[in-house]
Protein 1
Amino acid sequence: MFDALHPIKPDLISHEEYLKFAVALNYTKPNDAPPARCPVCMRQMKVRAGKKKADGHFYHDDSLFCPTKDPAKRPYLNLAPRLPNEAAVRANRLFTENNIEQIYSRVKAITSYLDFKEFIEILEEAKRLNVYGYANLIPDYLPYIFVTLINFLPSKSFKKSRQLKFCFFYEDKIRTYDELWINKGFSSNLIRVSYNNVTTQKVKIIETSTDYLTETPVTLSPAQKDWCYKVM
Ligand SMILES: [Zn+2]
């Protein structure tokens, strides 16, 4: 991947910035400097120079499991809540209906070239897994659950304009969706990884704020809204 977590700070660092970091600490070889970390599994990563200047990247130099290597094995995928509370399910679904344009806008903002049909696919998956029924779920954070429910493929993007496949991850400590709200608020970084086939490319930490609820959303047509409500 082209970026990784800084060795000490909670921010992403590019390959080039990491080389400068190693030089500033007087290391002759970058792989001897304190290592950058994988933003998902937090393990140390090595650096490798690229063929071209901009190709330098971070990589795992072991065969241990990291979800970024195998996105289908993200532990929380396909997990329905164990003890859904029916009143909470109704309230969370109602929240989604009432804020459908805001939620759509937030998902669209963090997923370049989102096609409306991808959003429909997300709502169908949310219904199938009953994601509205997780213990302690704070509905304001639903967009950040929704984006983990499907993989965003170039072929299904708006006018097929997306160049890379996107998958969303929580930090490796998160094993179930319930664990996201143990101490109120959102307890994990949400990370978007872009893939070129199976090779990890870009990494982005997604801000899990709830400001989107007070921003002016993209307008959905009455027919689009009806389609959403029908599949929910
Ligand atoms: Zn990793």
Protein 2
Amino acid sequence: MKRLVVVLLAAGGLAWWWRSRSSGNADTWSTPTGSEPTPYEPPKLGGDVDPELLAILACPLDKQPVTRQGNYLVCGECQRHYPIRDGIPVMLIDEALTPEQAAAAPI
Ligand SMILES: [Zn+2]
């Protein structure tokens, strides 16, 4: 089961890489003539998460279990909100909402 978590972390890193690549240097990507450029669609918040997966996930900061609240996984200890994007929990501290941010943003 540990391998699954590693894969998820890798997926989160990949999403970050993709986002940082697609923002900014859009002009360096030449589109072939005659074809429409594919608009970039950011992953949607939410989606179904496997309950088995949910059971083994933990907050990367304090290793406490997380519970689902709307489109987020919320740590029982630090109350950080980890977003679920297209059914994939993004367990990255940088991507998480702090309790203050979560209170300001509707879930
Ligand atoms: Zn936590």
